[in-house]
Prior knowledge:
Layout: E1 7-9, E2 15-17, H1 20-30, H2 36-46, H3 49-67, H4 72-79, H5 83-94, H6 100-109
Antiparallel strand pairs: 1-2
Helix pairs in contact: 3-5
Amino acid sequence: MSETRHTRASSTGTNKPKENAIEKELFAALITLKDADECRRFFYDLCTPKEISDMAERWWVARLLNEGSLSYRAIHQRTGVSVTTIGRVARFLEQENYKGYQLVLDKTQKD
């Protein structure tokens, strides 16, 4: 898997890779957190309420998709999350190489 995954537009309108060192530092900071309360506190400082809500909704959708018993439409009706977002989560859960959703789903199901 490539180290450079995300791009962002610069002030000149060109795309350039995010600085991998900063991204790595963020991920390293996350693994220093001891529990859900510390994680919540960090995310409340780091993210907007909307970003946290969006991530929480995607996590909810990933869990429902992983259960395998609901259609996209049923998940939409249950969660209010758009079918487009549900499809995007499903693509990352099932097809993308990162396998982050599945990694965490497997770890949390063992608890």
